Amino acid sequence: MKKETLLIGAHVSIAGGFDKAITQGEEIGATCIQIFTKSNRQWKAKPITQNDIDSFTAQQKNSQVRVVVAHAAYLINLGSTTPETVEKSVHALVDELQRCDALKIPYLVLHPGTMNTKDEEESLVFIADQINKALEKAQPKHVTLLLETMAGQGSVLGYTFEQLATIIKHIDHKKYIGVCFDTCHAFASGYTFDTPASYKKMWENFDGTIGLEKLKAFHVNDSKKELGAKVDRHEHIGKGKIGATAFTLLMKDKKFANIPKILETPQEHGLEDNKKNLATLRDYFND
Asked: Which domains does the chain have, with CATH numbers?
């Protein structure tokens, strides 16, 4: 049977073992998945064993899951106003980069952090400095750190292309840095891309500010809230405020054909919700 070439999937659980995430991905018909490599609610993590690595690698090799993306724990805040939290965050990021390296996961998605001074640029440079510390210590071999586009809720940074570009500008080893574009977050922060014209304009803006070569992954989520609300609330694809046109344009965009598109949509009914949302994305692709 020919493997599907469309790179779409969802965030899945590693409960029971890393290999179980691949199994879940296959169950929903995914060709890419996203995981946490540790508990998202704790700083410390159980060490990854050689058996974990071997079983995960073997399971993926024999599956249709072509790309695995990891998401860093939400506890990490490189822009915290608390020095202890910053120190813990840098240490945790080093650990997550090394865990991805061990599992040969190519991408680790990170929320950049929050304002820690009244000066936006100063805060962005501070975050970049912490990333530099983590990269220097981790010395990643296989993984690229992806800064996620944020919704702009509260004091969170990374909600404009310019903010992400400023962080990247101050990264010493830029080859280790990319971007994950979250559709819900971008919409909530004020970016409109629901017509061919606005879609084209937004990506021209992204390319001119950050560079399309830095775009390595998508989080594909609809939004419960209105354009520019700066509130991060994900919705099922086609059921929110973004609209079907935006997702159709994204799914049909050939320049993004080889970039993984991962759902983080609600799961009130478990894996069945993922199956429905993936079916919707396929419909947009085939429309």
From this structure: 8-286 (3.20.20.150)
